[in-house]
Amino acid sequence: MAAIRHVEICNFRGIAYLSWAPKEGINALIGPGDVGKSTVLEAIDLVLGTRRSTFTDTDFHCLNVEQPISIEVTVGDLPRELLDLELYSAAIRGWSAVTSELADEPGEGLEPVITLKVTVSESCEATWQLHSERLAANELPRAMRNDHRAMIMAQRLGSAVGQHLAWGPTSSLSKLSGSGKGMGAALARAGRAARDDFTVADAPALKPAVTAAQQVARDLAVPAALDAIAALDPRSVNISNGAIALHGSNHVPLRALGTGSSRLLAAGLQAKVSRSVPVLLLDEVEHGLEPHRIARLLHYLGSKETESRPQVIMTTHSPVVLRELSAEQLCVARSDIGKTLRLERFGEAERGLLRTHAEAFLSAAILVCEGPTEIGLMRGFDLFWSSCNQLSLAFLGISLVDGKGTPNAQKTALQFSAAGFEVALLRDSDVPPPQNEQTFRGRGCPVFCWRDGHATENELFDSLPPEALPELIAIADKHHTSTVVDTNLGSHGLNKDSITALRTRPTDAHRSILAKAARSGAWFKRIDFGEEVAREVVCPNFTSLTGQLPITIQEIWTWTRRFAPPNDT
User: What are the C-alpha distances in Å from 289 to residues 38, 245, 295, 320, 559?
Assistant: First the structure.
């Protein structure tokens, strides 16, 4: 079954350059938005798809029309007809599966492949042709027969898939119907029956016009129109293949289904005819589907199969898809400043992270937080920054990951760094960090933390001005009740009168007791609690903070701005 071995894209839309070797089976492109994943599918479709597109200046990278658009798709596992040396001898090239390198001539140990190329010049005129250095040097013909091209074509399924649920020229149903012998005669009979069945009685509003036409014919001596009637014009009633579609039991066409259901059915039909269309392109595979149907579709496309299946190249922003696929089936899209796009694969080491932190794989950068309190604080600060007209973490493509305490947080951060992500760590300092933190720092990754011996609760109660401390206590009261909070305070040596004084007029001497009670009572050990603390108490008092807290938060803010677009820092 034909499969894409290599894709090379130059100067096309958001991609300055890409060189990528997809694998057989499923290739899921993941990563942050607007990095170029869908553009890869569009480029492949332009070369191997059934349509011909018109181009404008906006299709050139950064509107640079002086450099032509060039898209090359190399295909292997060729059908016997394409290995005909008489037709394509100068077009056959060699592909090394070991080194993922392309040679212009076939050779020992190399798979015979062909390259199809689309070039778009400054005039926005496109050229589709077979490509090899020998063809170019000898000015040989570069055309490919249409029936041969159909053997290696790709089928793209977008949001509009209704044509695949009807019998059309390129639909899956037509391929499943085989030659379609006798279809033309059946359609002609259907057209005649429609015309025979129609009478003016079906549309009474037509009768006055028909009568008027007959009168005019009599007055102007047009004998052929004396008995004029209203009927369906054979030239207008042209029932083609596309007029026959799948219908439900209620006689409603299935292409009227919701987006998710229609895509699911069309993708399944495409998989059924994979021998006819060996490459399937799916943009946003999860679009319109519930998690259980996403899993079913991926299974149907061969996510768990080892035998030869259609090659599938898809994009996704769904953690459900990431958890269903193996690490080897994923390619993360990363872009340099010059928009050289890289599609990098994961391995066995990332399998565990995919199960526990799939969402983070869809981001540009990751801040691993020691626990839910730290995640909540960062979410609260993010809301505060956004309210001050600063770019949000979501805009910057930064995700927050729960490290689930020391030393697991350091381990998680190191694993993400080894997988090629931009990673930072936020932890408290109540216990010494594990040795692997030094390894993490050695990779150039920042660690944000409080003063030695300080947990997050210590830093909060030590940094806020005295008048803000009752606000923290009020949040604890709201979520745990004042009775529980008083019990926590009493367990650290305070009597009823001291607790009353602390609640109304806290002093510096009360700070350590409040921190101990907050830690033992888990006052803020939830993401939403930590978010409320940052949003309602810390941020409004930020200019009055002392100690390490404002310094660390400023360091984190500076780190996050690294991921801002140019001129947006």
Answer: 19, 23, 10, 11, 36
Q: Using alpha carbons only, give the angle 170, 171, 173 rounded to the nearest 5 degrees.
A: 135
**Residue 64 lies in domain:** 3-161+274-328
Statement to judge: residues 135 and 183 lie in one domain: no
Cis-peptide into 407, omega within 30 deg: yes
Residues near 331 by Cβ (< 8 Å), separated by ≥ 6? 20, 22, 27, 28, 29, 30, 343, 344, 345
Tell me which H or E stretch contains 96.
strand 93-96
Residues 221 and 142 in one domain: no
- Work out how many domains the chain is built from and give that number: 3
For helices 511-520 and 482-490, what crossing angle results, to 10°? Answer: 110
Give the residue from 310, 352, 345 showing the smallest Cα distance to 30: 345
Write the burial class of residue 541 (CB in 10 Å: 0-12 exposed, 13-18 middle, 19+ buried): middle
Looking at the chain, the number of H-run helices and the number of E-run strands are 22, 17
Give the SS3 label for residue 11. Answer: strand
pLDDT along the chain (569 residues), means of 10: 94 95 95 90 92 89 95 94 82 95 94 96 93 85 84 79 70 67 69 72 76 80 77 64 71 76 76 72 88 88 77 94 93 82 86 92 95 97 94 95 95 95 96 94 96 95 95 96 95 91 90 95 96 96 95 97 78
Cβ atoms within 10 Å, residue 244: 18
Would you say residue 101 lies in a domain? yes
Q: Quick check: 172 and 299 in contact, CB under 8 A?
A: no
